[in-house]
C-alpha cells in the first residue's frame, strides 16, 4: 500500500524584517511565513541555476561554438 506523501518538516526561525513590510503584508492578508518561504525557494533555485551555468560554462561555450560552425544536429528532421 502506498503511503501518502508527508508534508516537509517546518522549523521556526527568527529573521529581521522591515516593520513596514510586515504592516503592508498583514494589511493585504499575505501569509508572511509562506511568502518568505517562497522567496527563499526562488533564491535557492536561482543560485543553483547560476552555479550550474558557471560549472558548465566551458561545455556550453563549446557546444555553442559547434552549433555556430555546423548547425544543429538533426536539424533536417525539424518540423518547424
Automatic annotation (TrEMBL):
<dbReference type="InterPro" id="IPR009956">
    <property type="entry name" value="Post-segregation_anti-tox_CcdA"/>
</dbReference>
<protein>
    <submittedName>
        <fullName>Antitoxin CcdA</fullName>
    </submittedName>
</protein>
<keyword id="KW-1277">Toxin-antitoxin system</keyword>
<dbReference type="Pfam" id="PF07362">
    <property type="entry name" value="CcdA"/>
</dbReference>
